[in-house]
Amino acid sequence: MGTAADPAFDRETLRRGVEGQSPDLLLSLYADDAEFRIVDRTTQPSHPKVLHGRDEISRMLEDVYSRDMSHKLERCVIQGDEAAYSESCEYADGVRVLSESMISLKDGKIAEQTLVQAWDEE
């Protein structure tokens, strides 16, 4: 749990950002030098997509949350300087996406995140 010297990660800000599709609110949760790794069908574990810093993460969040789809924070678990959450999404045409994230925190901000995602395929 956070103290004045070690603030807690804000789960409610995460929920409002994800479900309100607010990339700026989500970006506020990241450290300036955060690293974000994405693993999926096209960026597999041996060659994940890696974003460095808030500028690259911001561009990705803007892209994702500008799409015609809904987002729901399913679960979020926080323990010390680690967190994990599940997010389910659905495009307007019914295609669903599920992502799972593991996070390392520093001073209440996301320092590292690894996201694994899968989506419906025809």
UniProtKB/TrEMBL annotation:
Domain SnoaL-like: from-to ranges: 17-112
Protein name from the UniProt record: Nuclear transport factor 2 family protein
Superkingdom to which the source organism belongs: Bacteria
InterPro entries assigned: NTF2-like_dom_sf, SnoaL-like
